Amino acid sequence: MLAGLRVLELGQNVAGPHASQILADLGAEVIKIERPGGEEGRRLGPPFVGDDAAWYHHINRGKKSVTIDLKDISQRDSLIALIGGADVFIHNSRPGVMARFGLDAATMRARFPRLIYADISAFGSRGPLADRPGYELLMQAYGGLMSITGGPDAPPTRMAPSMVDLGTGMWVAIGILAALVRRGVTGTGAHVEASLLETALDFSAIHIVNYLASRAMPQRSTDGFPGLVPYGGMRCSDGSLIVGAGNDRLFAKLATTLGRPEWAIDPRFANNAARVEHRAELH
After folding, report:
1. How far apart are CA 18 and CA 108, in angstroms?
2. Tens digits of residue pLDDT in 44-64
3. Over 70: is that where the pLDDT of 12 sits?
4. Across the chain, which distance is largest between two alpha carbons, in Å?
């Protein structure tokens, strides 16, 4: 779908590389710009495949790689020339770094009007936290995700996948695709921005709006979703299983399967709101 599109990625770790990896999977030519010695993601192992971390191979599949030292003026000029021949430029450098080298969005887009310039930060480009760095663990905590993950007696728990980094990469790819559609109409590029904080808040949104509506603080639960019962893990005599009765019709079928068809008409369990209220009894 994206054959003929050229993307430059000056990324590291997960969010930036994931955005360009999505575009590479869709057929774009992706050139990864790395510092001398390679980006730090190469060393985040074991396990290693060859000299590089296994996950580095995964998130950089389908890309080419070029080493450029931004502190070297001639090499920096080579990067600018590459940007001029590209459709998309993606980076997730700390705020202010690109401006220091004359590679910020305003400068590059003024020079190359068709360029789609995408950058990723921890807390966004504006506001009192804009200059702060951020990593997955910090953003899961700061965005509230760790307060709603795990069992009721568990400490704040990190989700195992790097959902904030991966999600931010997805938002960037979506923004780039939208900008490409607009460029096809107007002929001009765009500046796409995303932040780890916005992703963390978006992923917490159901719990946030439930709190705003009820003023009840979200609680950790072994249920997969607090507003749906039964919907989670159940411990049985020979192991555990997952029950996902996602609506009243499915709950009635579940009750029949369990040999308790009367549950479907029991006022405590007849609809989801009642089951949420009588969660402990049903479990």
Report:
1. 22
2. 889 999 999 999 999 999 999
3. yes
4. 78
Q: Can you tell me the mean pLDDT for 208-234?
A: 85
Q: Is 223 a catalytic residue?
A: no
**Given 87, 104, 119, 165, the catalytic residue:** 165
How big is the chain, counted in residues?
283
19's CB contacts (< 8 A; 6+ apart) are: 9, 11, 90, 118, 120, 168, 169, 170, 172, 173, 176
Cα angle 81, 83, 87; round to 5: 135
Integer Cα distance of 104 and 184 in angstroms: 23
Indicate whether this model's pTM tops 0.85.
yes
**What is residue 95's predicted lDDT score, i.e. its pLDDT?**
84
Residue of 189, 208, 181 whose CA lies nearest to 197? 208
Could you tell me whether strands 29-34 and 63-67 are parallel, antiparallel, or unpaired per DSSP bridges? parallel
* Four-point Cα dihedral 17, 23, 28, 33, nearest 10: -10
